[in-house]
Design goal:
Blueprint lengths: L11 E5 L4 H6 L1 H10 L4 E6 L4 H4 L7 E4 L5 H18 L3 E4 L4 H9 L4 E5 L10 E3 L3 E2 L2 E2 L4 H11 L15 H13 L7 E5 L12 H15 L2 E4 L6 H10 L5 E2 L9 H7 L3 E5 L2 H8 L4 E4 L15 E4 L18 H4 L3 H12 L21
Parallel strand pairs: 1-2, 1-4, 2-3, 4-5, 5-6, 9-10, 9-12, 10-11, 12-13, 13-14
Antiparallel strand pairs: 7-8
Length: about 375
């Protein structure tokens, strides 16, 4: 899908967008800066179709290409078609925000004149500009992914001075979000969002009975209406939590949330409590006070410096392990009590709400392209 683009005399830039929702949101300061720095460029995003809603409304790109779906022969034929489109576009620069071998191979086969990315996973020979990932004793050192993205932008001349996350909202997303608020009676209600699932795996998830008890505490002690949301496959989990609560809890189904309508839902919330998941970064982008419950993942990977977030994590000898399923007793998350979460909620709500980055304004950079 193409937008009305800049003059054809500008450079043609391909940006390979991350695959995880949270990583895409963490890339938004870089995407905004690249748009401002390369003011006359025609910028194309190569992304998974399901994250298109995340970057929609930002105004940071002109065209979109999708990775092919499927597996096996269907995927291979789709990849050939993608390579043909890349070669036809004749990109001057490909900036790889993902670290996969596939991304570097596509940029190389697609004929991008300059290919910038991190030299890892055996793909260094496919890049013209190779950045080195940070390592300690041969292993990757936990390091904010936002800093990694910013280093790539800086390598091509665009300094990311404003690192606040940001999200745009299209008119279609606004309409869908307003319908969602109306359906669940939230337009005139002070509500807290709770996201109890995690695409990464069960090891990231705080126990459902704790979420149920927290719903009751938020309603009875804090004065916020609890609202549960998640991916379509997480509806059984949401219903289970609601059924374990003592009082009423809103469950976002019929309609459920999409990655587009979720923007409006999060923007209007007074609070979010969640596992280490993608929607957490929606809250950070909209300046919503947030309590994040960490289990097996290292906080440093997703650190953004957002002052309106409190992170809870219990130190355990076996963690942070980065495993998708816990082989032990899930001690890192079972040790987090409802009282811990409620105390963090009160603290984060008492903080001044941070300023939100305005989408559509020009982020400061050292200089524009010449």
């Amino acid at each position: 899908m193409a937008a009305s683009g800049p003059p054809a005399t500008g450079p043609r830039i391909l940006i390979v967008i991350p695959n995880w929702v949270g990583d895409v949101v963490m890339a938004t300061p870089v995407l905004a800066t690249l748009r401002a720095h390369f003011a006359t460029a025609r910028i194309t995003y190569l992304l998974r179709p399901y994250v298109a809603d995340v970057v929609a409304g930002g105004g940071w790109h002109d065209d979109v290409l999708h990775w092919p779906p499927g597996r096996g022969l269907r995927y291979e034929w789709g990849l050939l078609g993608l390579v043909r489109r890349l070669r036809t576009a004749r990109f001057d620069l490909a900036l790889l925000l993902t670290n996969s071998f596939r991304a570097a191979l596509a940029a190389w086969l697609g004929g991008a004149r300059r290919r910038v990315g991190y030299a890892r996973d055996g793909r260094g020979a496919l890049l013209t500009d190779r950045l080195r990932p940070r390592r300690e004793s041969g292993a990757f050192r936990p390091f904010p992914v936002l800093d990694s993205y910013a280093a790539l932008a800086e390598h091509v001349g665009a300094t990311v001075a404003d690192r606040r996350l940001r999200l745009g909202v299209t008119s279609e997303q606004e309409a869908a979000g307003q319908a969602l608020l109306g359906q669940h009676g939230l337009r005139q209600t002070a509500y807290a969002l709770l996201n109890p699932g995690a695409a990464f795996g069960a090891a990231k998830c705080w126990p459902p009975d704790r979420f149920a008890a927290l719903c009751d505490a938020l309603r009875e002690q804090v004065g916020l209406w609890p609202v549960l949301f998640g991916a379509p496959g997480e509806l059984p989990l949401l219903r289970r939590i609601a059924s374990q609560s003592r009082g009423p809890v809103a469950v976002c189904e019929r309609p459920g949330t999409t990655l587009g309508s979720l923007k409006v839902l999060v923007r209007g919330a007074r609070l979010m409590v969640c596992n280490d998941t993608g929607p957490r970064h929606y809250a950070l982008a909209f300046g919503v006070p947030t309590v994040t419950l960490f289990g097996p993942t290292h906080q440093a990977w997703t650190d953004t410096g957002y002052a309106g977030e409190l992170k809870l994590q219990v130190p355990v000898p076996c963690g942070p392990c980065q495993l998708r399923a816990c082989p032990l007793a899930h001690r890192c998350l079972t040790a987090l009590t409802v009282d811990h979460a409620l105390h963090a909620v009160r603290n984060v709500l008492a903080r001044p709400r941070p300023a939100v980055a305005e989408v559509g304004s020009t982020p400061p950079t050292d200089e524009r392209e010449t």
